[in-house]
């Protein structure tokens, strides 16, 4: 699901961002250590308290090496900052996606619920109509209909349409059609194949 995928990606991007923020804190601390060390050495050098030329040279060398180290660490710091910017942008894009997909899902759920309510209302209406009609039918016909219906996927009667039973789709043979044609209008006729009650109309092909 798109929402689930976007949510997972958003969480993963958040984890990457917080890892980078931790790296940044560590990198800041590294730079600060070197910076303090440079200040200390520089103060020592400026104080004039060191007279030994070898010691002075060593101190100068150390200061040069500390300066190089600081540049390296600052480069790392910059790189982490750039990566943080990228991660923040990804987190923000994914957060927008999650929000938009959530609201999409909400609106689809709402539509579905409206459709379900409408269908429920239709079912109630059809059921009431069915109850009204079945109350008017002779009880033996109703009993036959219910009996066939229970064994035939809930369809107890079918239209005879252009010589075809709409229940099982069988085309009735001519002699069968002939006997139906001759049967009185109030006689219950059934399909030879599926036994469903055949409802005769002007389109029955009789
Ligand atoms: Zn049939």
Ligands and ions found: zinc ion
- Tell me the series of helices and strands, N- to C-terminal: HHHEEHE
Strand order, sheet with most strands: 2-1-3
Strand content: 5-15%
Number of helices: 4
- In CATH, the topology of the largest domain is named Helix Hairpins
CATH class of the largest domain: Mainly Alpha
- The number of domains: 2
Q: Please state the average pLDDT score.
A: 95
SSE-based structural type: mainly alpha
The largest sheet, given as strand count, sense and whether it forms a barrel, is: 3 strands, mixed
Evaluate the radius of gyration: 44 Å
How does this structure look, described?
The protein is built from four helices and three strands, in the order H-H-H-E-E-H-E. It is mostly helical and 206 residues long. It folds into two domains: 128 residues, Helix Hairpins (Orthogonal Bundle); 62 residues, no CATH class. The mean pLDDT is 95. Bound molecules: zinc ion.
How would you sum up this structure in a few lines?
It is built from four helices and three strands. It is mainly α.
